[in-house]
Design a protein that fits this description.
The protein folds into 2 domains: 4-86, Winged helix-like DNA-binding domain superfamily/Winged helix DNA-binding domain (Arc Repressor Mutant, subunit A); 92-242, Four Helix Bundle (Hemerythrin (Met), subunit A) (Up-down Bundle), CATH 1.20.120.530. It has 10 helices and 4 strands, in the order ββαααββααααααα. The protein has helices at 23-37, 49-56, 60-72, 92-104, 111-133, 140-155, 161-172, 178-194, 201-219, 223-242, and strands spanning 4-8, 16-20, 76-79, 83-86. Strands 1-2 form a two-stranded antiparallel sheet. Strands 3-4 form a two-stranded antiparallel sheet. The chain is elongated and about 65 Å long.
Length: 249
């Protein structure tokens, strides 16, 4: 397959420089364009390997490399014995990369984790503000049940990440924004993998209290109070990071 792109010559600014495209890159581009052109959606089955080779005019090895590349990024999903499918949106590769770089920088007093906590808080602050200002109400009874479970966990000395996550997912459910939950899942996974669950009754009690404060602000339709309560909640996460409460030796 022939292909590539042209860029102006940096020395003269005139004559274009041809950048040669590898066969694999060309196959990746062709396969993506084929998916778009045929209107495939997440979960749709791709044709057989031989049919794709004929339609894309690429060799079998180039196609397999293209599938391998797109599989690694989540664009495609290969099911043994069933075929190759258009992948479902997932940000696992992003969380894998962030976890890797967090481990690389863990000796720098958790700086990278603090950066991640700031981004996560900014995202949740914006979503929470939208929830209140748009007059959307979450399932208050469901949130009360989750908080009751959180209170019981706090008595045991720690609040599980699963309960914390359940609270935030239920809280933001009225926004009907699945992408926001996917992004938050990236952060949940990172902190679950890198931070220890530590027995600390006082900290656990504060965590539960901070979630109660968030719910009270939501009930009062108080966006400022909700932001303050959420910021206080993230103070607990920052304290854990600053205390080097890491799973990494």
């Amino acid at each position: 397959m022939k292909g590539g792109m042209t860029l102006p010559d940096k020395r003269t600014g005139e004559a274009p420089i041809k950048i040669k495209e590898s066969r694999t890159d060309g196959a990746v581009r062709a396969l993506r364009e084929w998916i778009f052109a045929h209107g495939l959606k997440s979960g749709d089955l791709l044709p057989s390997e031989s049919q794709l080779c004929a339609e894309l005019k690429v060799g079998r090895n180039s196609l397999r490399e293209a599938v391998r590349t797109l599989r690694a990024t989540g664009v495609l999903e290969v099911k043994q014995g069933a075929g190759t499918y258009v992948g479902v949106l997932s940000l696992k590769s992003m969380s894998d990369e962030l976890i890797f770089h967090s481990r690389l920088t863990i000796d720098d007093h958790g700086t990278y984790l603090r950066y991640l906590s700031e981004v996560r808080e900014s995202l949740e602050q914006g979503l929470l503000t939208n929830l209140v200002t748009e007059g959307l109400k979450p399932d208050l009874e469901a949130l009360e049940r989750i908080l009751a479970k959180m209170d019981e966990e706090a008595k045991s000395g720690f609040v599980t990440s699963a309960t914390d996550r359940e609270f935030h997912e239920e809280l933001l459910a009225p926004l009907k924004n699945p992408l926001s939950i996917l992004l938050l899942e990236v952060f949940w996974r990172i902190f679950d993998e890198l931070l220890d669950t530590k027995y600390d009754p006082a900290a656990a009690s504060k965590t539960a209290d901070r979630h109660h404060a968030i719910l009270l602000a939501i009930k009062a339709s108080d966006p400022r109070g909700a932001r303050i309560a959420l910021h206080s909640h993230f103070d607990g996460l920052r304290n854990r990071i600053g205390g080097r409460d890491f799973k990494i030796d």
